[in-house]
Design a protein that fits this description.
This is Uracil-DNA glycosylase. It comes from Propionigenium maris DSM 9537. The protein contains seven helices and six strands. By secondary structure, the chain is α/β, with parallel strands linked by helices. It has one domain: Uracil-DNA glycosylase-like domain (Uracil-DNA Glycosylase, subunit E, 3-Layer(aba) Sandwich). It has a four-stranded parallel beta sheet with strand order 3-2-5-6. Strands 1-4 form a two-stranded antiparallel ribbon.
Length: 240
């Protein structure tokens, strides 16, 4: 099988949207195939979801939210950064990052900061109209958000294990996006994500601390002081 046939098989197998075909060159597909051969069988997310973010029309996207790598716990990662498969914001497995995203969303729309217990009560009462986690990310994706992880895979149980493997791929993707999607808004949360800023050549960048480490409101870069949602409301309706 020659390189052109390998590319076509890859694009079909992973259901890559045609708007990304120029990025997935024959050489890029070979690089990706080499990565996949080197990660073994013990990785997350499932193979069918590794390239999930590339199944949608790039031309309809408005915002890119960068995560680091998929959740390393088996069965959690979905192929979208930060997404979890849970059906309720009251689920005890909701992590710190998602809790703080919920706090910032509420603050962005209603102007006040509430603790997670109060937010869950308001959701239950119907006074905070946000979709449950397993639906919210799909809705945001449909509205124009790319939920990209800088590494598309991770070894189960070992966070950060594949970051280096995917670094060139992600760097090249940012360079490509700068050329073909110049009006994209990038949400860059935390120091590890900031290293990719130098590869962003166009669009708007909103940068502050990561949602997993926050709570110092005297720090202007604290996540809960962030403007990611307020500055993108015109493009994305974050509430259901």
């Amino acid at each position: 099988m020659d390189s052109r046939e390998i590319k076509e098989r890859f694009l079909q197998e992973h259901r890559i949207h045609p708007s990304y075909y120029d990025f997935f060159t024959e050489g890029r597909v070979k690089e990706v195939e080499d990565i996949l051969q080197n990660i073994g069988d013990d990785y997350s997310p499932k193979k069918e979801n590794i390239f999930r973010v590339f199944r949608y029309d790039l031309h309809e996207k408005k915002v890119l939210l960068l995560g680091m790598d998929p959740y390393p716990q088996e069965g959690i990662a979905t192929g979208f950064s930060f997404e979890v498969p849970y059906t309720s914001w009251g689920d005890k497995r909701i992590n710190t990052s998602l809790k703080n995203m919920l706090k910032l969303l509420y603050k962005s729309y209603y102007g006040e900061m509430l603790d997670i217990k109060s937010l869950r009560e308001r959701i239950e009462e119907g006074n905070f109209p946000i979709l449950p986690p397993n639906e919210a990310f799909k809705d945001w994706n449909d509205k124009g958000v790319i939920f990209l992880n800088s590494a598309l895979t991770v070894k189960v149980g070992k966070a950060g294990s594949h970051l280096k493997l995917w670094e060139k791929f992600t760097r090249d993707l940012f360079l490509h996006l700068g050329r073909v999607k110049p009006n994209l808004t990038y949400l860059i949360w935390g120091g590890k994500a900031e290293k990719f800023i130098k590869y962003i050549s166009s669009g708007r960048i909103i940068c502050h601390n990561h949602p997993a480490i926050c709570g110092n409101l005297s720090n202007p870069k604290d996540f809960l002081n962030g403007t990611s949602f307020t500055e993108t409301m015109e493009d994305i309706q974050w509430l259901g």
